Amino acid sequence: MSAKAKKSQKMTGVIGWIDERLPIFTMLGKEYGRYPMPRNCNYLWSFGGMSMFMLVVMVLTGILLAMHYTPHIDMAFDSVERINRDVNSGWLMRSIHMNGASMFFIVVYIHMLRGLYYGSYKQPRELLWIFGVVILILMMATAFLGYSLVWGQMSYWAVTVISGLLTAIPLVGEDLMVWLRGGFAVDNATLNRFFVLHYLLPFVIIGMVVLHVAALHITGSNNPAGIDPKGPQDTLPFHPYMTAKDILALSVFLVFYAVFVFFYPDALGHPDNYIPANPLQTPAHIVPEWYFLPFYAMLRAMTFDIFFISAKLIGVIVMFGALVLLVLAPWLDTSPVRSCRYRPFYRQFFWLLVVALVVLTYVGGKPAEGLYVLVAQLATLYYYLHFLVVMPVLGRLERPRPLPVSIREPVLGEAS
Fold it and tell me: What are the backbone angles phi and psi of residue 309, rounded to the nearest 5°?
């Protein structure tokens, strides 16, 4: 490139002055402007950007809500009602934040299912995938802590039940429960701890997102074909091609989000959580938020003891083990092919996994009795079989379809 061309690209004005001393704009141009993306990435690749958007929304609205919230058991519920009724635009801030938690989990769950379908966890993206699972775990912890801050009847008893699960851990369980609660009962110390942790954990998530994006830009993005780009003919610059696609996808998502914020702000919440917490009255049926239901169903599905291990401890192990399996997915899957597009037999098992998760979500919101327990046990069994049996065994036995020579070939319908 000639010196004249280089000069024409040089930034001027205030931006140029800043960039000479701190080349942040040059870095952004490299990582989000000229960054090469596989040319066959579809709209499922927009959910990562949506997740980052939702993280920003949740942090900003959370900071605004924290200015008006009172973390005291005698005033917490009333302070939330005051935000809804008396604070200027408080109802809007809370509706965006409360429904934003559900929207955040929707886009993250789709983002992770896309990764499982197209094999985005396989070499060389193992660390990228692990960072993503850690982000999911931190999101769950943050959401659980935030749910407790309402100090309604359902959130109070959810905290009581979930923190009480720690007592199932041998030797240290009782001490862990007391440490988490700040005492032997769920009380003011518990609410204060949960408020501080709920405020701090999003910034930990931001740090993990930075690592996640850094790992992505080092290894490069996966694509629906599951093959690596062979050259410039297989890629497109992130801007304007991917930014245009992501903006359109985000616009559609925001319409869906706005429907809940403005028309059905309480549709995703439980009616009992609009009743002040009462330690002397246990709800007939304790139900967490919908995004916890698959794991809650796994917990309650364990109704039997195994030797000296209690059903309660088995449930805790199974619930947290479901997340551990996600971390181990890069090593459990033995197939040399990444994308399910070229694994027709395994693709059927993948959709069985999706069905199992939907079933667990449904039965997790039902009473733990009768047929619901049996269905939860069967769905949990398949979840574990999928990772521990189907992935390692089928990966060695299945004969996948031939992979394309290059990304360009299936996209443009021509040989490379």
Answer: -95, 125
